[in-house]
Specification:
This protein is mostly loops. The protein has one domain. It has 9 helices and 7 strands. The chain has helices spanning about 1-20, 30-35, 65-75, 130-135, 190-195, 265-270, 310-320, 355, 400-405; strands spanning about 80-85, 90, 100, 110, 150, 155, 360. The chain has a 3-stranded antiparallel β-sheet. Strands 4-5 form a two-stranded antiparallel ribbon. Strands 6-7 form a two-stranded antiparallel sheet. The radius of gyration is 21 Å and the shape is globular. The two termini are about 25 Å apart.
């Protein structure tokens, strides 16, 4: 019965999405449309704004910014392929399931991270290479093989729909230095705090500097630009709809074309909605011989242009650090001079913020003896009940503190290549 309900629900969404192919990727959020460079007669303004009957600030046609975004990107939205509330992406064209896959950033209400079933093959103790570690966190699926999102245990937005009540603090926001500056200011976040709804040419239309509202918030001193891939699909016969799922692989060096960057490429190569890895970004996800450098980035830009694995991670860490200014560290085993955030995990190379954390929301379960009572930097302990689990996952991708063990072997006994998780079929978790 559950499977039948899912099929009916997905079919309904499929029918709705099939009726709006003109939106494709970007929808009304395309910079060249909204800045007038492609003509002054664009009609996209009417999709979100009303001149005299607006229901919210900035003349938007909803009570607030997040509610407006949810009209397209929510569970009942019909105007976008990316459902950021449920943590999945739909397909506009093609046969079979309308679900393309699970969103890499998780979701604000549910997320499809297989947080309780990570796998690690420790080939060596060389932490400079993520490929040596083979840390894998696959997509959560049900008994039928369908993507199976679960309620989130932490999210960047506290919402009635997700029942979260974590402190709305920009942790570590301030100028790093001596003295007790406190954990960070209390802020108010909305979708537009991080994204530019009009488009700006950045990766996922991210604002150059995130802009939450709150007394005492200290913004970054300069923009943290995250370069995006070309808007136009090199294949003119296919849609420009981007692939925002966890299914990624290399770009083509020396060219603007990319591989599995666009949603149509995922379908063409036969990858199903359950394919992918929240830890790495390439598929097949257990290929041991693939080097850790190259265009291994979710924006798909080849390494010898302006992107690549290392450059993308550097950009993302800089962007996250625009709010969490006292978190970034190039040498985690040295004191920072900060009274609270004294010793910090490195955020360089393959240890970017997004290696361990998702941006929207995580369904990782923190039910362990120590994880469930892990306090925030202000000593607050969240004890809300989400699916029978207390505690907050801090947007991590693995239950309890399994995120640490995906890379670290403090006992020094697993260097013989022993699997500590299930052996997957190549290319499919």
């Amino acid at each position: 019965m559950r499977r039948l309900a899912l099929v009916i629900a997905c079919g309904a969404v499929w029918l709705i999405l099939a009726a709006v192919p003109a939106l494709a990727d970007g929808g009304p959020h395309v910079m060249t449309v909204n800045n007038g460079s492609l003509g002054i007669n664009a009609d996209g303004c009417a999709g979100c704004h009303r001149a005299h009957t607006a229901q919210g600030p900035f003349l938007i046609n909803a009570a607030d910014e997040t509610a407006l975004c949810a009209t397209c990107h929510g569970t009942a939205g019909a105007g976008a392929t990316t459902d950021v509330m449920s943590g999945i992406q739909y397909r506009l064209v093609g046969a079979g399931s309308p679900v393309l896959g699970a969103l890499r950033g998780g979701g604000f209400v549910t997320a499809a991270i297989d947080s309780g079933n990570p796998a690690r093959l420790l080939v060596s103790n060389d932490l400079s290479s993520s490929d040596d570690q083979h840390a894998k966190v696959s997509v959560r699926i049900d008994g039928t093989g369908a993507v199976d999102p679960a309620p989130v245990t932490s999210a960047h937005l506290n919402m009635a729909e997700n029942g979260l009540s974590a402190p709305a603090v920009a942790w570590g926001n301030d100028v790093i230095g001596l003295g007790d500056k406190g954990p960070g200011p209390t802020v108010t976040l909305s979708c537009a705090s991080c994204h530019n709804p009009h488009g700006n040419g950045q990766y996922r239309i991210l604002n150059p500097v995130p802009a939450p509202e709150g007394a005492g918030f200290v913004p970054a001193t300069g923009p943290a630009t995250v370069t995006d891939s070309p808007f136009d699909n090199p294949d003119a016969a296919e849609a420009d709809t981007k692939n925002y799922t966890v299914i990624q692989t290399r770009g083509v060096p020396g060219t603007l074309s990319t591989y599995l960057l666009y949603a149509a490429d995922v379908v063409d190569d036969g990858y199903g909605p359950e394919t992918g890895d929240y830890w790495h970004v390439r598929v097949p996800w257990n290929t041991a011989s693939t080097p850790s450098t190259g265009a291994d980035a979710p924006n798909g830009i080849p390494a010898n242009r302006t992107g690549g694995f290392v450059a993308f991670n550097t950009q993302m860490t800089a962007w996250c650090s625009s709010c969490h200014t006292r978190y970034a560290s190039s040498a985690g085993d040295e004191p920072s001079g900060d009274a609270l955030f004294a010793f910090r995990h490195e955020t360089v190379g393959n240890r970017a913020c997004t290696t361990c954390h998702v941006s929207h929301g995580s369904n990782a379960r923190m039910a362990g003896q120590f994880s469930s009572t892990q306090p925030f930097p202000n000593d607050a302990t969240v004890t809300y009940d989400i699916g029978g689990v207390t505690g907050d996952s801090r947007l991590l991708k693995v239950d309890n503190r399994g995120t640490c063990q995906l890379c670290h072997d403090p006992t020094g006994t697993l260097a013989d290549g022993t699997y500590t998780g299930p052996v997957p079929v190549p290319g499919t978790p």
